[in-house]
Design a protein that fits this description.
By secondary structure, the protein is of the alpha/beta class. The protein has eleven helices and six strands. It folds into two domains: 145 residues, 3-Layer(aba) Sandwich (Rossmann fold); 55 residues, no CATH class. Helix 1 crosses helix 2 and helix 5 packs parallel to helix 11.
């Protein structure tokens, strides 16, 4: 029985369109081009960071982030806030908690993402980030930390994310149940792959996931 539901962050709970659009503006690249290149990275199984090198070869990303911080200290820049939350997330998380599930947020995120997520006051029992843990997906140690903070056996945990490589496959290898959410370029592309069949569920929204659990489809 699933007792804890653990969520990835980017393109699972948080939409990243505004972030990538601001990056395009910062780098002087048309937004459509930036988003298209990002989709290409997803299709080629390359890191999202490679998109920067495609549009601006040789770009020092960390130096650019620091320069951006100096230029626009009060702006969101590469960060997110509550306006980036997918609209179905809050009611979906609430439905899971009302059904008695433990709800945890744990994904690959930089240090500042923790405060941003906590400030949203989401209906979740805990928030964790890879930066806070010092270990990132798809490393097994990340999923061991998930089980530890949940205080559950892996088989009692459902891990939800938009990627096969970072979410579904490593969580499954760690003994967890898995759900692939079809959002963002990785989510849509990965849902079409044969490997997606190993996920216990493929859903489009968090309320759909909550309904599937309530109906005993997992």
């Amino acid at each position: 029985m699933v007792r804890a539901v653990v969520f990835d962050v980017g393109e699972t709970l948080i939409g990243e369109t505004r972030i990538w659009s601001r990056w395009a503006d910062r780098l002087g690249v048309p937004r459509f081009t930036m988003l298209g290149v990002l989709g290409g990275m997803a299709a080629l199984d390359r890191s999202h960071r490679d998109a920067f090198q495609v549009v601006r070869p040789g770009l020092d990303i960390e130096a650019e982030i620091e320069a951006w911080r100096r230029d626009d200290p009060g702006g969101l820049r590469e960060n997110f806030d509550a306006d980036d939350l997918y609209p179905d997330v809050r009611p979906g998380l609430a439905a899971l908690r009302e059904a008695g599930h433990q709800v945890i947020i744990a994904g690959n995120q930089p240090p500042q993402a923790y405060d941003a997520l906590v400030a949203m006051n989401l209906p979740a029992d805990a928030v964790h980030t890879s930066a806070g843990w010092g270990v990132s997906k798809p490393q097994r140690e990340f999923f061991d930390k998930v089980a530890a903070v949940a205080g559950r056996e892996p088989g009692e945990i459902l891990y939800v994310g938009d990627r096969l490589d970072n979410d579904v496959l490593p969580a499954r290898d760690a003994g967890m149940r898995t759900a692939l959410i079809r959002r963002g370029p990785w989510g849509y592309l990965h849902a079409e792959r044969p490997e997606a069949l190993v996920a216990d569920l493929i859903v489009d929204t968090v309320p759909e996931l909550a309904a599937a659990l309530a109906e005993g489809r997992l």
